[in-house]
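Cast an eye over this sequence plus tokens and walk me through the fold:

***
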Amino acid sequence: TENYGGLILMSHMLPLFPPYSIQFADQKQEFNKRPSKIGRRSLSRSISQSSTDSYSSAASYTDSSDDETSPRDKQQKNSKGNGDFCIKNIKQADFGRREIEIAEQEMPALMALRKRAQGEKPLAGAKVVGCTHITAQTAVLMETLSALGAQCRWAACNIYSTQNEVAAALAEGGFSVFAWKGESEDDFWWCIDRCVNVEGWQPNMILDDGGDLTHWIYKKYPNMFKKIKGIVEESVTGVHRLYQLSKAGKLCVPAMNVNDSVTKQKFDNLYCCRESILDGLKRTTDVMFGGKQVVVCGYGEVGKGCCAALKAMGSIVYVTEIDPICALQACMDGFRLVKLSEVIRQVDIVITCTGNKNVVVRDHLDRMKNSCIVCNMGHSNTEIDVASLRTPELTWERVRSQVDHVIWPDGKRVVLLAEGRLLNLSCSTVPTFVLSITATTQALALIELYNAPEGRYKQDVYLLPKKMDEYVASLHLLTFDAHLTELTDEQAKYLGLNKNGPFKPNYYRYSLKSALRFSLPRFYC
């Protein structure tokens, strides 16, 4: 024992207190030194073997029970003898059904809509072809559309986001689903084509997420638009494509822009990403956020959610932006606005969420520090130039599901997640309650377009009426036992409002960026 500053310490405790320290003269290690090739291989093996606990139960179940045979080479039928689907394994249906039942508990508005409207069947005769993420939450939407009278055929909008057990449950329930986790690019388009190109069935409504389904029909089956009543589009990428078609005079049916509805912008984009960014990064890398330097490219609603979450966890967050309004918001929220090139050498994590292309290019990747994590929270896989990394001098090493180490000749490695595709739905899950808001909005948009009298909507892109946004929000307030204040007659008259809403005009956007997009003269935009 030793007396140290009035404390009696045992000998095995001495190394914890100065001036005592242990030095191994023969085994000094530089912890920032890059590992050798042998070290890298053993490290990769140990990470791979110890990483199974990081996956969700759904991902673990799917990954461990599937063989390597392509679903396209299988002949599968459900218990009723129907084989009009292509999924990974129909035997997972019971497990998927439990996932769907759990999701139903957190989707109160969609279940309320199903209960209220299924007697009227507002979608009777509707033939909906969909291309979205196929998850338990999407399954609740599909089954709601079916309960309201619609026939549905579905493909996945992302090759990594499909929950195989949910797809199996849908196929067992009679839905024509063509999707599985880990599709190739060729599989992706084949699945979409199987949804669309079927004898004796032609869609009259499109529900899209990203615009790939709409693009495929325009490219391969343009005559189908003669019977299609409308398109409902959820994502920034897909909406951008629709506006391009509209501007070129090539949009031949009405389209509903769900992405810029208040319920999508302010809830799915913001609150969903605020929670799921941490989930996706933790499951794939086990990274500690405190003290890490992170750059978030884009400060729209998705970027705002990501920044808020990372800041709360103790990360040092930088923001890149092209829009001076969003940039000013980032500054006033306490984030430092930079150019990516200014911080690329020092940051530990790079997150893209712009909806643009080539945000992170090979020059950025070459200058990143060792073990920098790179991921994308935007819909499309175009934000990170992943193709530039597929060159002979770089080595790709798969260390976990959806986690690749890209290794440079000098030993530097960059950790690439989901090959640059959407992180949260590829590598983790998203909050069901928030998706209930978006799914209810999508269902109402389909009902509106399908039942609209001829002439109400022209061949253009429309926003969801504000009254519908407010209705969707009100359906979810019941979950919180929330009590809205009601206007008196005098107050309503003073404000010039109906007591029951809408409480904001249709041109009012809760997001200033969206307001400018739709209200400023074109020469400002």
